[in-house]
Amino acid sequence: MPYIAPTEDLTFLLDHVVGYDQVVQTERFSEATPDMTRAILTEAARLSEEIMAPLQRPGDLHPAHLENGVVRTSPGYPEGWKAIAEGGWIGIAADPEYGGMGLPVTLASAVNDMMSGACLSLQLAPLMTQGQIEALEHHASDEIRALYLPKLISGEWTGTMNLTEPQAGSDVGALTTKATENGDGTYAVSGQKIYISWGDHDVAENVCHLVLARLPGAPAGTRGISLFLVPKYIPDASGAPGAANGVRVVSLEHKLGLHGSPTAVMEYDNATGWLVGAEQGGMAAMFTMMNNARLGVGIQGIGVAEAAFQHALAYATDRRQGRSPVENGTGTILDHADVRRMLMTMKADVFAARGIALSCAVAIDMAGATDDAGWKARAALLTPVNKSFGTDTGIAVSDMGLQVHGGMGFIEETGAAQFCRDVRVTAIYEGTNGIQAMDLVGRKLMDGGDAAFRLMDEIEACAEEAREVFPGLAEAVWQASETLRETTEWLAAQDDMNVRFGGAVPFQRAFARVLGAWIHLRAALVGQGTPRETLARFYITRLLPEHVGLLAQAREGSGDLYGLSADELAA
Computed from CA positions of residues 155, 157, 163, 166, in that sequence, does the dihedral angle turn out positive or negative? Predict the structure, then answer.
């Protein structure tokens, strides 16, 4: 079936649930009026449905490939990229000084949601470029910003992020790529990087790599890492791509999914680069890009979940199998209780995850517009939860979508399996979901849980507001928040970080479950007597109870995880 952009859900969440009105009331984002917001969503929906969605299947069947040292992308991708670039979608949240629209990250996130659902392999290219734009805006010199930002924002050039090496995955501090001064303000960068999304291609005229490397004499670990901008072609005096740099693609990875997205092994051989930020300040600069990407990757999961749900619903609406147990039903598998269970779960979780993601984006916008420490803490707290729950939802919903298809889901021609294959990596890249959970119970609780408790206060205030209208739902949400509060207090009191880490993943999942209930309850208050209320009841009565078992796991710590020795595990 054709992909349909979820503009109705996005508009409802922005208007009634996630606090977007606070963003547009700030001086910085005052131009993002309701009329402009709807116009942006309408045009992004058209791009997603008409231009990008038709490229989803060709990208899977005809992967990017390396041909005589040149990466050739899937059929239609250069034209798709051109449409994205000419529409201004890459620079939607970028600084207007360099050609961006300067609109809220929240609105850019809604656009990325639609584009991800239409064609994730292609959407990954603008996402990487958007992250690089933000990193350069915050950390690059005036000269670098003036030269590179207009080209990246216009889509003439694209951006990548180079962290991982064969021996240094999540342990970035173990990298061996080196940089030495050339004596003219530039540096010679040498080393190899792997898993570089859109590391090379034929859709734009230049590729700009942000590369982590170590200067001579720098201390070991992450403290000694610096960040360098290394273009594929060195800009000439006029700013146009000039001489080829010492950068080459060694190979492209053969992957489970995302076949249309070229994932490269990159080699740097005395490549000319420019320092971004301070010496040995590379991780701080790169984290700007990574945090942007973590928001975006959570949204990628949600976008794919939306597309997988639509695909499964269309199949269930047409497929006749077995005797209908529902009088005057549709006569299709949509009548069967277990199929309904899966579809309701899919729809409810997509809405919850989308609400969490947009709430995170609102916090980022408010932090930038007001410089308020409370909003900064809220944004930091929600980032790992959004990344993990959004991608977990993408994986779970895609899997359920395949199950709805039955045996046909296992047949590639239906397209159901592609959602599973494409979305699976989102729980891995930009920091695995396990690392996100460790960040949540580690760094994000360094304040003793203050930011988390303030959020729980808001959840409980919403529950109190809802008691008169939805007493049962309100009580369930209030009690869930209190249980989450108690476990958060317990975790924050644990000095042994491995005790926290042992329960980090279930805690993070429980946190998202409670946040999702809050999102649904707020939606029900606005949409009383409508399908919004019905969906909220389903989520709160059937999915929210999962938090009890998860929080019980979180409080078990790490001891039993090591109950079996390495030899006993293998026995």
Answer: positive
CA distances from 433 to 37, 272, 439, 509 (A): 31, 34, 10, 10
Q: Which class is 432-562 in CATH?
A: mainly alpha
* Helix, strand, coil percentages for the chain (3-state, nearest 5): 60, 15, 25
Give the per-residue pLDDT at 173: 63
Query: How many Cβ atoms are within 10 Å of 527's Cβ, its own excluded?
Result: 17
Residue 223 is predicted with a pLDDT of 85
Which helix H or strand E contains 264, and what residues bound it?
strand 263-276
Closest CA relative to residue 452, chosen from 505, 388, 507, 521: 507
Question: Considering the chain, what percentage of its residues have pLDDT values greater than 90?
Answer: 89
Q: How far is CA 524 from CA 280, 440, 520, 529, in A?
A: 50, 29, 6, 8
- What are the boundaries of each domain within the chain? 432-562
Strand partners, 1: none
pLDDT band at 175 (very low <50, low <70, confident <90, very high): confident
Q: Which helix (H) or strand (E) holds 360?
A: helix 337-370
Q: How far apart are CA 518 and CA 478, in angstroms?
A: 9
- What's the pTM value of the predicted model, to 2 decimals? 0.95
Catalytic: 165? no
d(CA 9, CA 553): 33
Q: Is 195 in contact with 429 (CB distance < 8 Å)?
A: yes
- Looking at residue 48, its pLDDT comes to 98
Q: What gap in Å lies between CA 561 and CA 554, rounded to an integer?
A: 12
Which residue out of 134, 165, 430, 533 is catalytically annotated? 430
Cβ atoms of 297 and 431 closer than 8 Å: no
